[in-house]
Amino acid sequence: MKRAKVKLKCPNPLFKQWLEEWRDEAIDRNSDLKHVYEKALKSLKKYPLPLSSGKECFVLEYFGPKICSQLDFKLAEYQKKESVLVGTCEIGILENNSSPGTKKEKKEYNFDKEAEKKKIDYVPTTRSSSYAILIALYINHINNKTAEMTKSELLSKAQDFTDTSMFKPQPGSYYTGWNSMSQLVKKQLVEKRGNPPKFCLTIEGLLLAKQLHILHTNSLNEVKNTTVKQSESLKSSTSKVITRKLVLPPKIDCPTPKEMPEVLSLTHPIATNEAEKYRQEPSKYQKDSLIFLPKTFKVILLVDTQETCKGDEIVKELKSLGILVEIRKLSVGDFTWICRNSSNQELVLPYIIERKRLDDLAKSIKDGRFHEQKFRLKQCGIPNCIYLVENYKEHLSLPLQTLLQAATNTQIIDNFTVKFTAGYKESIIYLSHLSSLFNNIFSPPTSIGWCCQMTFPLYTIFLLLATA
C-alpha cells in the first residue's frame, strides 16, 4: 500500500506565478536571466512563510534589488487592479469581511448609499504611513464629537500604527511618513480645512478607514501573540544551543606522545597507516602537534580592527572587566579567542562571533553581505559560530519581522548560535561572561591541550581538550 503524500500549498502564489512568467519569457528570448529567475523561484518555494512585499524577499537567497523591485512594481499593479490589502487579506476581503452597517451606524457616520456602493480604488499597505493616518483619524472620529485633528495631534496618534517614522526622514531620504498626507488629500480620502490646517476624513475616506480598522482590531491580538511567542522561542532556543555547545567532552586519559595519533583519531579520524607513519617518522608529526601544559597559557579575546574604527571604547570596557583583549585584523568574524603560552605559541579556541546591529543586519541582507559572511564563517573551520544581534530599532530599512526571520533561518538552517542583546552594553557583558567561562573551561589544573591541522585563515592549529 502506497503512502499518501501531502503537498503543501505555496504561501506566496503570486510571487511564484510572476517569477515563473519572467523565467518563461527569458527562456523564449534565450536570455541568461532564465537561470536567475529559476534560482530565485527555487529559493521562494523553500520559504514556508507568506511575504507581503518584494522588499521582504531580500532575506531569501538569489533575490537581489532588481528582482525585489520588479515584484513590488508588479504587486502595486495587481493591488490597484484587484483592490487587495497586501499581507492581510485576499481579493475581495474588504467586501466579504466587512459586515453591513446597521441603520444606527449609517446614521452616526453619515454613510451615503452611493459611497457604500462606490468601489475602493486605493488601499494602503498594512502599517504604512497612509494606513496609520486613516486609522488615527477614524479612531478620533469615533471617540470625539469633532472629527478634525491638527497636524501635531495626528502625528502622535498615527505613529502607533506604522513602522515608518512620522517625524524623522528615512535613511537616505528627505521624506517622513507625514508626506503621505498629500497623497490622501489628492485621492479625496482626507480633507484639509482652515489655517492653521486641520484634517478630517471624507465620506470615501471614512468608509475605507472603517474597513481598515475592522481588520486592524481583528488581527491585533494575533499579531502581538505571534511576536511574543517568536521572541520567547528565539531566546529559549538560543540559550539551549549555547548550553549544548559549551558542554565539555567526556573524560579520557591524558595521551603520551606515542599515543597522540590514536587519541586524535577519536575526534578527527586518522588512518591506521598514518599511525604507523608516526612511529616511523615522529619528527614529522611533532611539527604539526602542540601541547599546552596546565597553567602555562592564557585565554585572550581577539577583537577585529573594524570593531575599533570609531574608537577603542569596546577594548577599554572589556579590560575594565578584567578580560585580556588584543586588537587584530581578523579575516573572518569580529571576535574569537586564543590560548597563548609563555613561548608565544597560540591555539585558537573553537568559538567565533559575528556581531550585527539590527540596522546593519538589514543593510547586509539588502547588499548581499549577509549570506556571504555566513558562508565564510562556515568555511573557516571553527565549529561553533555565534551570531550576536544587537537591538536597534531606528532607521531600519527592512521590517523587524523580516530581520527576526533572517535570525531564525541563521539558527535553524545554518546551525549557528544566535544571541540577542538589548544593546552595546549588554554585548560587552556577554563577551566578558564568555571569556570568563572559557577561562574556567580551558584552564583547569588537570587539563591538557593538543592541536591538529585546521583551515582557519589566521592560524593552522586548533585546540582540543582532554581531562584526567
TrEMBL record:
InterPro entries: DNA_pol_lamdba_lyase_dom_sf, ERCC4_domain, HHH_MUS81, Mus81, Restrct_endonuc-II-like, WH-like_DNA-bd_sf, WHD_MUS81, XPF_nuclease_Mus81. GO terms for molecular function: 3'-flap endonuclease activity; crossover junction DNA endonuclease activity; DNA binding; metal ion binding. GO terms for biological process: DNA catabolic process; double-strand break repair via break-induced replication; mitotic intra-S DNA damage checkpoint signaling; replication fork processing; resolution of meiotic recombination intermediates. Its main location: nucleus. SMART domains: ERCC4. Residues 300-393 form the ERCC4 domain. Its cofactor is Mg(2+). The keyword Transmembrane helix does not apply. Interacts with EME1. Interacts with EME1 to form a DNA structure-specific endonuclease with substrate preference for branched DNA structures with a 5'-end at the branch nick. Typical substrates include 3'-flap structures, D-loops, replication forks and nicked Holliday junctions. May be required in mitosis for the processing of stalled or collapsed replication fork intermediates. May be required in meiosis for the repair of meiosis-specific double strand breaks subsequent to single-end invasion (SEI). This is Crossover junction endonuclease MUS81.
